[in-house]
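Summary: Need help interpreting a holo structure output

Steps to reproduce:
1. Submit the protein chain below together with the SMILES for flavin mononucleotide.
2. Request a joint structure prediction with the ligand placed.
3. Inspect the structure token block that comes back.

Expected: a single structure record containing both the chain and the bound molecule.
Actual: see attached output.

Input attached:
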Amino acid sequence: MSDLDRRVCIAPMMGWTNRHARYFHRQISRNVVVYSEMLAPEAIILGRKDRYIHYHPEEHPVAFQLGGHQPKVLAAAAKELQRVGYDEINFNVGCPSKKGKIQPFGAHLMKQPALVARCLAAMGEAVDIPVTIKTRIGVDEQEGYQPLADFVGQVKESGCKVFIIHARKAWLDGLSTPRANREVPPLHYDYVYRLKREFPELTVILNGGVTEWIEAREHLRHVDGVMVGRRAYKEPYWLAEVDREIFGAAEPKPSPPEILRRCLDYVQQELESGTHLRDMVRHMVGLYRNAPAAAAFRRHIAMEGNPHGADLSVFLGAIRIADRLSRPGSAMLQSQT
Ligand SMILES: Cc1cc2nc3c(=O)[nH]c(=O)nc-3n(C[C@H](O)[C@H](O)[C@H](O)COP(=O)(O)O)c2cc1C
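--- attached output ---
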């Protein structure tokens, strides 16, 4: 069992939490555990793996999420991920994608706990880092707390000790999109609390709908950790409070321009190695939350940062705008804080 401090994690989000976003988030919080987007293990074993698994050493602690259903293939991918230095492998048993019907993965696997346990056990035998699971409270006709407890009771026999629970069920047949499955089924935090009470030996992390640190603190009275997704991505400056609010850090939170300055060398190096500026700055557009600061910053990033060939001068321009917005007495700053 690892001693990773998972009190607050940033959720895996496909298309969002790639390495550029994770590096940016790490400049805002030194403590949160960051998660990759989900990837099929075949992409790591057979594909252009460097492209998919490359990360920056500053991202630690960083977990990689796999989605699949073949124990041997998952184990081989997990081994490679450990070799390159990831801190944790997370197994996705929560994605409601319709594709999961053809080649089972994600939430579809909640109906096959024995297979989930085999996948986790195979990965657990292949690596020394923790192998964890992210799942739902149930799928389709599964109602109430008991299906979750039965699932966890079976799956923990694999040796998996960390359960991240998205506290709503997934409708695999009824709801048309993964997005609807993040919004429509009601949240049941009480099930997640009860799981921790009944399985005190497990590390239980609650996910879904957490948008304030005061809520996170309340959850942490009942469970071991909280995973935050959409708010952290859309309003990354919210994360600037977490080190003080939850991890007890003494340093003041970094200002937006300071966060951007921390990214400067990274952006320069990535540009030199051929990354487009827009692929990095698109994760930063939400740094300012309220108009007019948000509008001025976003306009610069969207208009100047988007064209092919946008260079470091555009990023330096974004820092200059941020400096101006943060100057004492700036009307724009007042709307940010
Ligand atoms: C754009 C997007 C992509 C997502 N991709 C994944 C994914 O790859 N793996 C996963 O386990 N969950 C994924 N999720 C679900 C989140 O990890 C999280 O469970 C969900 O957003 C609920 O947390 P929140 O209410 O704090 O956002 C995704 C969510 C969003 C918004």
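--- end attachment ---

Reviewer comment: The chain has a mean pLDDT of 93. The first helix runs from residue 19 to 28.
Status: needs-info
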